[in-house]
Amino acid sequence: MKIAQAGTIESNDALVIVSPSDKLIVEIDSIVFDKFGDAINQVIVDTLKEHQITCKVVVKDKGAYDYTIKARLITALRRAQNE
Amino acid sequence: MSSYLFVPGNNPGMVQSAHVFDAKGVIFDLEDAVSVQDKDSAKDLLKAYLETAAFDNVYIRVNDIYDLGKNEIEEFNNFDISGYVIPKANTKVMSLVEKYTNKSLIPIIETPEAVLTMKEIGEFDNVTGMLLGGEDLATNIDVVRTLDDIELLYARHKLVMVCAYLGIDSIDTPFTDTDNDESLEESVKYSKMIGMSARSSIHPNQIPIINEIYKPTLEEIEFATKVVEAAKINDSGVFSVDGKMVDLPVIIRAKNILKKAKAYEKN
């Protein structure tokens, strides 16, 4: 696995960066962290579990819906494994 | 409604609000509106979105069938979408696409070959409409797009005739000058006048304008109502309403107008 990213820091989107790590690390920088920080973390943890991957995930969220964060993570993970 | 809205497949803000506009169909675009490096993320975004959302008349414009398009069709076949918009359509492309999906197909007529073989393209089983791709067609015949689309005259009129013959939707090319509502109105009026059943659009602000122009006018509805009522009590083949001759084609047209007006009322 290499470092890879997907998404943007445009409104309604999220930039998701994944990198190798032996343990799960999730860092979230969100404009709606107080209200949705836990939900974003849950999306990340659930998606990683689905894909059976442990790594570090950095999320720069600009108000993205759950499915957008999930999609950006899936793309970043695929890119990390392919690139 | 008589409008189709193209929505860039990798833009979450636009994807999530696509259903709120009053378009007859939404076309999520994986092709021209998505950069080469983001083809994968657009596909992932649309899949994640379609897992959570459901609304009618959703199409996906896939990429070239000889490139990414085949896999895209196969990957979206399990989603609840109406079908696919097929770029660079010709009879070979359509016979391939037909093998990959049973969903509805809207081929884009955007090459001289496609203009000349429109009928054969439209005759493929799951084709429910054909869309004119004005930008690509203009490039392919080496002309510049003008506001009144005079360079597309033949293709537009041929599309109307072929689609009417086949009983499928004729969808006019998007009007790409998004800051020019006045010319958009003229262009859409022309689409309606020549018989295009719908107009496609690349900007949500154009949708209300298109719908409003396509909506039967009060005058049209009033005249159509008079014609239909008069037809009920008139045994002779030809009669007159408001000084205008009415025969069977006029009655059929009047009924169609009332049907359209009802459809607009429901929305």
Nearest-angstrom radius of gyration of chain A?
11 Å
Number of domains of chain B: 2
What fraction of residues of chain B sit in β-strands? 15-25%
Give the largest interface. Answer: A-B, 18 and 13 residues
Helix-strand string of chain A: EEEHEH
| Oligomer category | heterodimer
Terminal CA distance of chain A reads 8 Å
Number of strands of chain A: 4
Strand order of the largest sheet of chain A: 1-2-4-3
Mean pLDDT of chain B: 94
Notes on the structure:
The complex is a heterodimer of chains A (83) and B (267). Chain A has 2 helices and 4 strands. Chain A has 83 residues and is α+β, with helices and mostly antiparallel strands. Chain A has a 4-stranded mixed beta sheet. In chain A, strand 3, helix 1 and strand 4 form a beta-alpha-beta unit. In chain A, helix 1 packs across helix 2. Chain B has 2 domains: 212 residues, Alpha-Beta Barrel (TIM Barrel); 49 residues, no CATH class. Chain B is built from 12 helices and 10 strands. The radius of gyration of chain B is 20 Å and the shape is globular. Chains A and B meet through helix 2 of A and helix 1 and helix 2 of B.
For the structure shown, list the relevant keywords.
heterodimer; A: 83 residues; alpha+beta; 4-stranded mixed beta sheet; 2 helices; 4 strands; 28% strand; globular; B: 267 residues; alpha/beta; TIM Barrel; 2 domains; 8-stranded parallel beta barrel; two-stranded antiparallel ribbon; 12 helices; 10 strands; 16% strand
